């Protein structure tokens, strides 16, 4: 995903009461993806500007950006981060190093100086911070501004497992234990590398108990130095007697039941679960995870049906979403659940890290 980061900082008095602002735009649509602003105490313009850059890069990493174009009206920061000017001031050296560490996590990053009139969005946020309208450093996303949601959300990074032999053949794969194919292992490694730019060893990594999700989750844990937790509630739908069958085979085996099943989420597969039962189970799992990790970021490695159920909760959508939403193997989606009951879906079915052919 390619984004544009615009950042600014200022100080009333230089040095004086200082603050920064940063905004992340989608590079194609120019839609606002995230905003950040905060006061940084008594300091200089340049220190505030570096803090703005760091906040913008942090927000871009959390969004899963792979390509970043930084635009700032600070000639000093742009030239120093581009490597053309030396960094002599002791107060800026650690800030520049922090920014470089963040920048190294992206596939590519560029820095461009722009005139102040083209940096109005970040400048406004910085001035709000200096005026005391932003009291703490935290994301201020567009949904928070126009929906009035309150509190710090629990951010769930929803990862589907990599390819298995059953997924290659388009067979129902519920409670069985097919291992990842070689391509599935590559997919897991690719998305793990992607997540390593977003999360760290302290981030909970929670997996379905099935082997294909545990393999995928372990790839993420190895990449970030974390540990995998297991939650039974994230297991795939039980397809019962249809396990291992194709759509055609299942419809031929039980034509009337299969016809009802694909149109009514309350109808279970023979000897298995209904999608409504899965939805209730996943909702309980979500509530338990929020109780355990509320207000933080959590990686959830699961399957098509549980992930669709979580996105459905985030969108407050009806059951038809289960039949209309497509999720690729090793795809990444993001949903945030707020303590006031609101939610925001931030990303769906992102496969920009894909190493090759899917199946």
List keywords for this structure.
single chain; 359 residues; alpha/beta; Nucleotidyltransferase, domain 5; Rossmann fold; six-stranded mixed sheet; 13 helices; elongated
Describe the structure in your own words.
The protein has 359 residues and is α/β, with parallel strands linked by helices. It has 2 domains: 2-140, Ribonuclease H-like superfamily/Ribonuclease H (Nucleotidyltransferase, domain 5, 2-Layer Sandwich); 154-350, Rossmann fold (3-Layer(aba) Sandwich). The chain contains 13 helices and 12 strands. Strands 5-4-1-2-3-6 form a 6-stranded mixed sheet. Strands 9-8-10-7-11-12 form a 6-stranded mixed sheet, sandwiched between helices. Strand 11 and strand 12 (343-350) form a beta hairpin. Helix 1 packs parallel to helix 3 (93-103), helix 7 (182-195) crosses helix 8 and helix 11 crosses helix 12. The longest helix has 19 residues, at 275-293. The radius of gyration is 23 Å and the shape is elongated.
Q: Helicity level, as a percent range?
A: 25-40%
Widest sheet, order of strands: 5-4-1-2-3-6
Kindly name the structural category. alpha/beta
Termini distance? 22 Å
Strand content of the residues, in percent? 15-25%
Average of pLDDT? 90
- CATH H-level name of the largest domain... which superfamily? Phosphoglycerate mutase-like
The CATH topology of the largest domain is what?
A: Rossmann fold
Number of strands: 12
Tell me about the largest β-sheet: 6 strands, mixed
In the CATH classification, which architecture of the largest domain applies?
3-Layer(aba) Sandwich
Order of helices and strands: EEEHEHHEHEHEHHEHEHHHEHHEE
Give the total of domains.
2
* Cα gyration radius (Å): 23 Å
| Chain oligomer state | single chain
Q: Residue ranges: pLDDT <50 for 5 or more in a row?
A: 134-146
Shape: elongated
């Amino acid at each position: 995903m390619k984004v544009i980061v615009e950042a600014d900082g200022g100080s009333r008095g230089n040095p004086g009461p200082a603050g920064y602002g940063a905004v992340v735009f989608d590079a194609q649509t120019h839609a606002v993806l995230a905003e950040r602003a905060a006061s940084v105490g008594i300091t200089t313009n340049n220190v505030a500007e570096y803090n703005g850059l760091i906040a913008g890069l942090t927000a871009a990493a959390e969004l899963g950006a792979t390509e970043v174009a930084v635009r700032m009206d600070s000639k000093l920061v742009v030239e120093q981060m581009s490597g053309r000017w030396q960094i002599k001031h002791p107060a800026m050296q650690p800030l520049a190093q922090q920014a470089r560490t963040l920048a190294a996590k992206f596939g590519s990053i560029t820095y461009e100086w722009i005139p102040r009139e083209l940096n109005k969005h970040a400048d406004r946020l910085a001035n709000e911070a200096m005026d005391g309208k932003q009291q703490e450093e935290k994301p201020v996303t567009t949904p928070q501004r126009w929906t009035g949601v309150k509190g710090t959300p629990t951010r769930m990074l929803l990862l589907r497992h990599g390819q298995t032999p059953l997924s290659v053949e388009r067979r129902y794969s519920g409670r069985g234990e097919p291992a990842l194919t070689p391509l599935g292992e590559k997919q897991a490694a690719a998305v793990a590398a992607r997540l390593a730019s977003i999360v760290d060893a302290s981030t909970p990594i929670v997996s379905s108990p099935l082997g294909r999700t545990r393999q995928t989750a372990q790839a993420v844990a190895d990449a970030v130095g974390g540990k995998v937790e297991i939650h039974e509630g994230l297991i795939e739908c039980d397809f019962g007697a249809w396990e291992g069958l194709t759509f055609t085979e299942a419809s031929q085996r039980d034509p009337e039941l299969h016809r009802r099943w694909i149109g009514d989420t309350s109808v279970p597969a023979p000897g298995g679960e209904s999608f409504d039962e899965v939805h209730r189970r996943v909702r309980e799992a979500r509530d338990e995870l929020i109780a355990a990790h509320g207000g933080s970021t959590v990686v959830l490695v699961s399957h098509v049906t549980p992930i669709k159920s979580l996105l459905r909760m985030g969108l407050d959508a009806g059951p038809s979403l289960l039949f209309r939403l497509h999720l690729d193997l090793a795809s990444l989606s993001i949903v945030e659940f707020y303590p006031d009951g609101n939610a925001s879906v931030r990303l769906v079915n992102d496969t920009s890290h894909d190493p090759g052919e899917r199946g």
